[in-house]
C-alpha cells in the first residue's frame, strides 16, 4: 500500500516537473524583438532554442509597422503573405506551441519578409531529441530507454516512471532525488 501511495505522489511530482520544464517563453529575436531593424537573423535565433510543446512564443513589435502571419512552408519560402493561416496584430502576440513540427511565421508588411522578417519555429519530438542527445540523460539513476520495451525481470512499480523520467531532464532528476530523500 505504501509503495502505491509513493508511486502516486511520485507521478504527481513528475507531472509538475514536466509542466515546469515545459513552461518556457521564447521572445522572438530576444531583445531585438520582431523587426527589420538591425537585420536580426531569425534563423540563427531559432536554431539556438529548444522549443517544446507547452512553450510560448512571443512576438513583440510596433503594431503600426509590423504584424505576424502564420503561414505554410511554401508561403514561408516565397514570402507570400496573401493567404495566411492566422494573422496576429496586437504588437505583443503570445502563441502557445501545441504540436510538433515546423511553425512558420512572417511579417505580412510588403518587403519585410524579404528583408528577413520570417522565422521557422521547429518543435522537435521530445523522445527523438532525447535519443539524439544520450549524454544529457541522467544515466546514473535512469535505466537505458530500451529497457522500457522489454518485460521487467522483477515487478518494480517505479521503474517505468524512472525510465520515462530520462526524457524530462534535470528537473525530473532533481525531483526524483528529492522524493527519495523525502520518503
Ligand atoms: Cu514587418
UniProtKB/TrEMBL annotation:
Cellular component annotations (GO), alphabetically ordered:
plasma membrane
So which residues are the signal peptide here? Answer: 1-23
> Where is each Phytocyanin domain found?
24-125
Q: Which UniProt keywords apply?
A: Copper, Electron transport, Glycoprotein, Metal-binding, Signal, Transport
Has UniProt tagged this entry with the keyword Plastid?
A: no
- According to the lineage, what is the superkingdom? Eukaryota
Alphabetized GO MF terms: electron transfer activity; metal ion binding
Gene3D superfamilies cross-referenced by the UniProt entry: Cupredoxins - blue copper proteins (2.60.40.420)
Task: Kindly give the InterPro entries that the UniProt entry links to this protein.
Answer: Cupredoxin (IPR008972), Phytocyanin-like (IPR039391), Phytocyanin_dom (IPR003245)
Report the protein name in the record: Phytocyanin domain-containing protein
Amino acid at each position: 500500500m505504501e509503495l502505491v501511495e509513493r508511486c502516486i505522489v511520485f507521478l504527481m511530482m513528475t507531472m509538475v516537473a514536466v509542466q515546469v520544464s515545459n513552461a518556457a517563453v521564447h521572445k522572438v529575436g530576444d531583445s531585438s524583438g520582431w523587426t527589420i531593424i538591425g537585420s536580426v537573423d531569425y534563423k540563427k535565433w531559432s536554431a539556438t532554442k529548444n522549443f517544446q510543446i507547452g512553450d510560448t512564443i512571443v512576438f513583440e513589435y510596433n503594431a503600426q509597422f509590423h504584424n505576424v502571419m502564420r503561414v505554410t512552408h511554401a508561403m514561408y519560402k516565397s514570402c507570400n503573405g496573401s493567404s495566411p493561416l492566422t494573422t496576429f496584430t496586437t504588437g505583443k502576440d503570445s502563441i502557445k506551441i501545441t504540436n510538433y513540427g515546423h511553425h512558420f511565421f512572417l511579417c505580412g508588411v510588403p518587403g519585410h519578409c524579404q528583408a528577413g522578417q520570417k522565422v521557422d519555429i521547429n518543435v522537435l519530438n521530445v523522445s527523438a531529441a532525447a535519443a539524439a542527445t544520450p549524454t544529457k540523460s541522467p544515466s546514473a539513476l535512469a535505466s537505458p530507454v530500451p529497457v522500457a520495451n522489454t518485460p521487467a525481470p522483477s515487478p518494480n512499480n517505479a521503474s517505468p516512471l524512472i525510465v520515462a523520467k530520462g526524457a524530462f531532464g534535470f528537473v525530473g532528476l532533481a525531483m526524483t532525488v528529492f522524493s527519495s530523500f523525502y520518503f
